[in-house]
Write the structure tokens for this entry.
Amino acid sequence: MTTPDGDPNVLDGEIVDETPTAAIAVPSPPLPEPDYSEGGVPSFDFVRDKIENRYTTSVGATEVAGLGTEHTAEALDKQIADRDQAAKDRLAEIRRSMRGE
């Protein structure tokens, strides 16, 4: 494309009005409530959320560790006691067989 003067190195353009971006008002998001007061005291909601988070973490860790519904601490203690008793019985049986009884 050439200009009316016939110069092929000059391009014809269009002038566009620029709207300053500062003139466009962008609403700021609402700020969250602070977790601590100016005196350094935590808010009730912050403390409650922290306690609930710790509780759910401990419940999840218990379930992951296998101490959920059917594997309670009492059941595991009984399994250990049964295994120990079976080991004692087997040891007594081996000792009897070595004595020739």
In short: Residues 48 and 54 are 10 Å apart (CA to CA). The chain has a mean pLDDT of 79. The radius of gyration is 39 Å.
